[in-house]
Amino acid sequence: MSNAANFSGTIPSYYDNGLGPNLFTFYAQDISRRVADTRPQNVLELAAGTGIVTKYLHRDLADSTNIIATDLNQAMLDIAQSKFSENDNIKFQAADAVDLPFENDTFDTLICQFGIMFFPDKLQSLKEAHRVLKDDGHYIFNVWRSWAENPFAKIAHETIASFFDDEPPKFYETPFGYHEIDEICETVKKAGFSNVTAQKLKHTAPLTDIPAFAKALVYGNPIAEEIISLGGDPDRAVTAVEASLYESFGITKNMPLEAIVFSAKKAKGE
Ligand SMILES: C[S@@+](CC[C@H](N)C(=O)[O-])C[C@H]1O[C@@H](n2cnc3c(N)ncnc32)[C@H](O)[C@@H]1O
């Protein structure tokens, strides 16, 4: 597992509480509606994390829909699972998106929110998605656009980097480093999909709790470990990130975000 993909230890709770409401809820609601529009019977969620999308899938899909929520990191899934009761029709299973433990032709729809950037082999993950989908099945996933459209990430990266003379922590390059639409569409087609579409989606997030958000930007992903391994102090990074966020968003409390939502289909016989 690459360091950037290691969401374990205390990361999941900071992620869920501090990043979830500011970064992921809006896009989760959007992608869940898109999944519901495919009227699936069997749904597989990849890189489900702490279940932020899973919650909306459960709300938006018919009660009879079978949902399997997967993630590489069991610690993320533990929080996801704690949001549901045994009566809810959802299974949780640790799974690597580049090597899925499911039979061919099993699911009607696959969904993955802000996960593919972490997969070490994107094409292989897309081939796996294609393999486990039934004919006419859909794969819907989203990615972040770059730091330019998501300035909080540039702020976090540069503020943390200012503590290091040489090589700064690189975590924020991963989630914001896979957004070239033509390249992604080509890779999706190469994996066997057709009807590939891409839609940019802007959002303005109301930043209600800047200190909690700053803390989660450091402790809610693997960058805190990276800071420590490079001889830095995550708490000092939190204080500095909080100050930078106040400087940029303190007056309006409005934070611009932008993602791209992809959709693709497994045509019959492909
Ligand atoms: C930014 S989080 C997104 C989580 C969730 N989809 C959401 O919207 O909140 C990225 C997730 O990708 C997972 N991940 C990283 N590499 C993975 C892999 N190879 N297979 C499956 N999940 C992976 C991480 O454990 C983490 O939960």
Q: In the CATH hierarchy, what is the class of the domain at 3-145 and 177-206 and 257-265?
A: Alpha Beta
| DSSP, total strands | 7
Please give the largest β-sheet: 7 strands, mixed
The distinct ligands, each listed once, are: S-adenosylmethionine
CATH architecture group name of the domain at 3-145 and 177-206 and 257-265: 3-Layer(aba) Sandwich
What does the average pLDDT come to?
96
How large, in whole angstroms, is the Cα Rg? 18 Å
Structural commentary:
There is one protein chain. The chain has a 7-stranded mixed β-sheet with strand order 3-2-1-4-5-7-6. The model has no long low-confidence stretch (mean pLDDT 96). The chain has a domain of 182 residues: 3-Layer(aba) Sandwich (Rossmann fold). Helix 2 links the parallel strand 1 and strand 2. It has 9 helices and 7 strands; from the N terminus they run H-E-H-E-H-E-E-H-E-H-H-E-H-H-H-E. The chain is an alpha/beta fold. The structure holds S-adenosylmethionine. The site of S-adenosylmethionine (SAM) has 22 residues, from helix 1 and helix 2.
